[in-house]
Amino acid sequence: MKIFGFVPARMAASRFPGKPLHDIAGKPLLEHCFLRARMYDRWDGLFICTCDEEIRVWAEAKGYPVIMTADTHTRALDRVAEAAALCGQAVDDDDIVVCVQGDEPLLGPDMIEAVIKPFDEDATVEGTLLAVPIPDEETFRNPDMVKLVHDRNGDVMFTSRAPIPYAKTFPPANGALRVGGIFGFRWHFLKWFTEQPESPLEIAEACDSNRIYDNGRRQRIAPAPNRPYLSVDSPEDAVRVEAVIRDDALWGRY
Fold this sequence. Notes:
CATH superfamily: Spore Coat Polysaccharide Biosynthesis Protein SpsA, Chain A
Number of helices: 9
CATH topology: Spore Coat Polysaccharide Biosynthesis Protein SpsA, Chain A
Distance between the termini: 27 Å
Mean pLDDT: 95
Number of strands: 11
CATH architecture: Alpha-Beta Complex
Structural class: alpha/beta
Shape: globular
Number of domains: 1
Low-confidence stretches: none
Helix content: 25-40%
């Protein structure tokens, strides 16, 4: 079983244009994500994938492998699937393709390992995603944070920008989880995903994972290690990350 990673990025992010190359603590956001992902030691290949010349030029100047994709993708997983087909290596149907979102600057190799672990333990698992505990009501109510609910087997049932599971007032004990921006797929499963049209819940929620559940398939949750984990969806988020990243255990190691 080979493992390939792809970090998708585009400059025209609707909520934060230019986000991938926005400076955080002396490095572009995308570089934090790529270098932290590169610390995972089981990759058979790790690539940046983009439709933007600006990102390509930056990545090649740094010596980071980059794959150019179409500029028509609206979902990160479609971009990753195209990049996997173009990566120049043989990706077999049961190999693992990992999408590492380029807006998670506090990710760590242990989080990637968490996403891979279900594949090691259960050959029937086709897809996984990082599930991050929600620590506070602000995050729970924030529509930029994609929440999830899962069944007793740990398979995701639904993702939403709404606060789920419902809570009139937020109690941490309700087990609320958000999607952590790292996704694993058997290559055959990701190819199947890209062949399906956008689904009703995917469109309504602007969550591409719902394409899977609308079609009766499942992803297994991968519980994230319990430590601060901030996504960047806005300039204000970048400021929050800048305030804490130097205290992160990986700071200074990449």
